[in-house]
Amino acid sequence: MDVPRAAFLPDVMWPHDMATGRSVAVSRALDPEGWWRWAGADAPIVMQWDDGAHEGVEPGGSFSSSSSMPSLVFSMLRDLDVRPGQRVLEVGTGTGWNAALLAHRVGAANVVTVEVDGAVAARGRAALERFGAPVEVVHGDGALGRPERAPFDRVIVTCGVRDVPGAWVRQTRPGGVVLVPWGTYYGADEATARLVVDEDGRTASGAFTRSVAFMRMRSQRSVWPRHDAYVFGAEAMDAAEVSYTDVPEDGLRRAGFVVGLRVRHVARNADRERGGRRAVWFYGLTDRSWAVVVFRDGRERAKVYQSGARRLWDEVEDAFRWWERHGRPGPERFGLTVGADGRAPAAWWDGDRDAAWPV
Ligand SMILES: C[S@@+](CC[C@H](N)C(=O)[O-])C[C@H]1O[C@@H](n2cnc3c(N)ncnc32)[C@H](O)[C@@H]1O
């Protein structure tokens, strides 16, 4: 391979085993064979935990920089459709591997990559130089783009966002592409939006290309609703409105991206299983409405509790039924329109941009 991933990976790294869902440290010095095996595997590899605050070889609390799985990296580059000589901005340098792949295609002088973490940026810059791909690596907030190097033909974002910064649209020439992993606060479900900037440069719009799972941009991490700010006191459950539902638990999970598109301002959180009981909570993000649906082993219907001005479960169930009635569509049937002024994005369905709704 012209641009091997191994050239960009650190000596100690934490491959994410997709089968077990766990990350385990691998050291190039102590286990060279294992290191090389993982370097060549189609798995994400964590290289930093907890924004660099975590030290040692045990995995930290949450990963904050990683090398994405190669199959995803290549799919995104295919979606980006980048041609020799085009000018590209990457947001999220990480290891530098993707920047090197871009440089291989368009020339290192045409690529600039922005990384928010100082240590990660320095490491990525050194790896790119060592490899002979002297891409400009900027330590800063990628949400600002890189105005000094604009206009770009392509912007590729390798962290997830909720709001698409207007700077990316403004810094991309008409007809250029912004490829960005996007999702709501409803849950972790995300998809890459391939946004084409329109002729007057005021909006960018396009269909989602595939489901993905990225770490969120630092400034847009979900601020998790505090449960006890919604549900207070033992009597809260007694006072809630009770009903039952036959929405299946796995269906609710699978519909996550679409429900997130159709129900605004709601966050979802699934509790850990306890004695065959699994509760999924919903919190209103603009008021204190909440709902919980409780699935139990062996029961066909789940019990629902709702409280507050909104009936959050009813909204979620409506969206779920819509998803079922329309043949359980994936993200590819939807699209997104965003503005150069950073206004709230709008989603659309089956190419009907005129019927877009705010998300
Ligand atoms: C999945 S990793 C990127 C992988 C990288 N493209 C590669 O080839 O290894 C996501 C990166 O986005 C960075 N990031 C998060 N928020 C950012 C921001 N506001 N601006 C720039 N980079 C950011 C993280 O620090 C992390 O290194």
The tally of structural domains comes to 3
Content of β-strand? 25-35%
**By helix and strand content, what is the structural category?**
alpha+beta
Total count of strands: 20
- Counted by DSSP, the helix tally is 10
Distance between the termini: 41 Å
Bound molecules: S-adenosylmethionine
Write a compact overview of the structure shown:
The protein is α+β, with helices and mostly antiparallel strands and 359 residues long. Helix content is 23%, strand content 31%.
Can you give keywords for this protein?
31% strand; 23% helix; 359 residues; 10 helices; alpha+beta; 20 strands; globular; 5-stranded antiparallel β-sheet; binds S-adenosylmethionine; 10-stranded mixed β-sheet; Rossmann fold; Double Stranded RNA Binding Domain
Description:
The chain starts with 11 loop residues before the first strand and ends with a strand. The chain has 3 domains: 5-67, no CATH class; 70-220 and 330-358, 3-Layer(aba) Sandwich (Rossmann fold); 227-325, Double Stranded RNA Binding Domain, CATH 3.30.160.690. With 359 residues, it is of the alpha+beta class. The longest helix is centred in the middle third of the chain and has 14 residues, at 118-131. It is globular. It has 10 helices and 20 strands. Helices cover 23% and strands 31% of the residues. The model has no long low-confidence stretch (mean pLDDT 95).
